[in-house]
C-alpha cells in the first residue's frame, strides 16, 4: 500500500480554479456560448432546409473540383445518398453542422498558433507539450470543466471537439512553415519583402500542402468525437450510435456508424485532394 504521507491531490485546486473562472468570466463565457450556439443552429437549420438533392449536387461538384475525377465525385455523392436512404439524413446534417463549426474554430485558432510557433521557437517549446496533453488526455476528463462552464448541449460539445482536434493543424502548420526552403526565404529577404509579405506571399502558399494535411486530420478527429459529443447533449449520428449501445440495438448502431464512416470518407477525400496537385481525368 502506498504511504498516505506521500500522497497529494490537485482536485481541490482545480475545483477552485474552475469556480473562480465561472465567477469572474461567467458573463463573457455566456456571450461566447450564445454566439457559437447561434452559428451552429443557423448552419444546422440551413443544411436541413436545403433540399437533399441540392446538397448532393454541391458535394459532388466540390468533390469533382477537388479531385478532378467524375467517378470520385459520383462515389462521394452516392455514399451520402445511401445515408439518406436509410433514414438518417437529418441526423447527418446535425452531425455535419457540429463538425463544420468545430473544425472552423479549430482552424481559425490553430493556423495562427502554428504560424507563431514556427516564428518563435520558445513558444513552440511550451506549445508542443500542451498539445501532447490535449491529445492524450481522455476526452471525458476535459468534458467535466467544459460542462461546468457551459452546461449540457451543443456548445460544450464544440469546445470538447476543438480541444481534442486542434493539435494536428497547429503541428502541421508549424512544420510546413519551418520546412520552407531557406534559400527561397533569403531571396525574398533580398528583394526587401516585409514579414507580412513573406508570410502571405511565400510561406503560407508553400506550406499549403502541409496545412491542408493538418486540416484533414483535424476534421477526422473532430468527426471521431461525435459519439462522445452525443453524451453531453449534442444530437446527430452519435446519438443513434449511443442509443444502439444502450439498448443493444445492433442494427441501429451499425447504420449510424456506417453513416459516420460515409461522411468521414467524403470529407477525407475532398480535403486530401485539395492538399495535393490537381489531376484531371474521368
TrEMBL record:
<keyword id="KW-0472">Membrane</keyword>
<keyword id="KW-1133">Transmembrane helix</keyword>
<protein>
    <submittedName>
        <fullName>Proline/glycine betaine ABC transporter permease</fullName>
    </submittedName>
</protein>
<keyword id="KW-0812">Transmembrane</keyword>
<dbReference type="InterPro" id="IPR035906">
    <property type="entry name" value="MetI-like_sf"/>
</dbReference>
<keyword id="KW-0813">Transport</keyword>
<feature type="transmembrane region" description="Helical">
    <location>
        <begin position="96"/>
        <end position="120"/>
    </location>
</feature>
<dbReference type="InterPro" id="IPR000515">
    <property type="entry name" value="MetI-like"/>
</dbReference>
<keyword id="KW-1003">Cell membrane</keyword>
<feature type="domain" description="ABC transmembrane type-1">
    <location>
        <begin position="92"/>
        <end position="271"/>
    </location>
</feature>
<feature type="transmembrane region" description="Helical">
    <location>
        <begin position="140"/>
        <end position="167"/>
    </location>
</feature>
<dbReference type="Pfam" id="PF00528">
    <property type="entry name" value="BPD_transp_1"/>
</dbReference>
<feature type="transmembrane region" description="Helical">
    <location>
        <begin position="36"/>
        <end position="64"/>
    </location>
</feature>
<comment type="similarity">
    <text>Belongs to the binding-protein-dependent transport system permease family.</text>
</comment>
<feature type="transmembrane region" description="Helical">
    <location>
        <begin position="70"/>
        <end position="89"/>
    </location>
</feature>
Amino acid at each position: 500500500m502506498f504511504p498516505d504521507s506521500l500522497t497529494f491531490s490537485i482536485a481541490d485546486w482545480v475545483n477552485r480554479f474552475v469556480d473562480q473562472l465561472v465567477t469572474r468570466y461567467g458573463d463573457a463565457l455566456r456571450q461566447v456560448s450564445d454566439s457559437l450556439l447561434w452559428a451552429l443552429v443557423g448552419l444546422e437549420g440551413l443544411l436541413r432546409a436545403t433540399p437533399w438533392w441540392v446538397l448532393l449536387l454541391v458535394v459532388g461538384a466540390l468533390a469533382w473540383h477537388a479531385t478532378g475525377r467524375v467517378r470520385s465525385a459520383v462515389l462521394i455523392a452516392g455514399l451520402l445518398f445511401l445515408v439518406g436512404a436509410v433514414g438518417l439524413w437529418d441526423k447527418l446534417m446535425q452531425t455535419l453542422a457540429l463538425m463544420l463549426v468545430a473544425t472552423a474554430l479549430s482552424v481559425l485558432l490553430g493556423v495562427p498558433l502554428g504560424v507563431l510557433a514556427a516564428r518563435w521557437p520558445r513558444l513552440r517549446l511550451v506549445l508542443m507539450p500542451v498539445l501532447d496533453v490535449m491529445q492524450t488526455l481522455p476526452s471525458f476528463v476535459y468534458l467535466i470543466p467544459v460542462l461546468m462552464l457551459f452546461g449540457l448541449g451543443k456548445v460544450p460539445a464544440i469546445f470538447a471537439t476543438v480541444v481534442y482536434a486542434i493539435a494536428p493543424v497547429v503541428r502541421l502548420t508549424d512544420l510546413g512553415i519551418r520546412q520552407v526552403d531557406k534559400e527561397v526565404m533569403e531571396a525574398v529577404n533580398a528583394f526587401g519583402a516585409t514579414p507580412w509579405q513573406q508570410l502571405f506571399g511565400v510561406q503560407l502558399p508553400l506550406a499549403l500542402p502541409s496545412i491542408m494535411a493538418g486540416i484533414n486530420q483535424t476534421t477526422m478527429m473532430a468527426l471521431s468525437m461525435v459519439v462522445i459529443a452525443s453524451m453531453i447533449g449534442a444530437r446527430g449520428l452519435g446519438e443513434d450510435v449511443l442509443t444502439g449501445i444502450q439498448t443493444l440495438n445492433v442494427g441501429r448502431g451499425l447504420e449510424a456508424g456506417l453513416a459516420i464512416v460515409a461522411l468521414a470518407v467524403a470529407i477525407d477525400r475532398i480535403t486530401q485532394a485539395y492538399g495535393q496537385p490537381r489531376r484531371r481525368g474521368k
